[in-house]
Design a protein that fits this description.
single chain; globular; alpha+beta; Arc Repressor Mutant, subunit A; 3 helices; 4-stranded antiparallel beta sheet; about 90 residues
């Protein structure tokens, strides 16, 4: 499963936890610890968007939890906007 996450994230560069979980065929709660393994290895970082949820309950679990693949251990550029901060 970890290699599937690696290949998915390398191809996408940035993805919400919900997409990672969907790709793996598991729930976000199952995918999160696997993504955290890549975080500990320094290959993935969590992206903080600075946008608060309005509480409408339309987003599934993990939809607002976004991760970025780090190429060669360096911080990858993101085209999602200038207000994104690294966590």
């Amino acid at each position: 499963m970890l290699s599937r996450i690696r290949e998915f994230m390398k191809s996408r560069q940035v993805a919400p936890l919900s997409d990672i979980a969907l790709h793996l065929g598991v729930t976000p709660d199952v995918a999160r610890p696997m993504v955290e393994t890549w975080m500990r290895k320094g290959r993935v970082e969590r992206v903080v968007t600075g946008q608060a949820c309005s509480g409408c309950d339309r987003c599934g679990a993990g939809a607002l939890e976004i991760y970025r693949w780090r190429n060669d251990g360096s911080r990858a550029p993101c085209d999602a906007g200038s207000d994104i901060r690294r966590h």
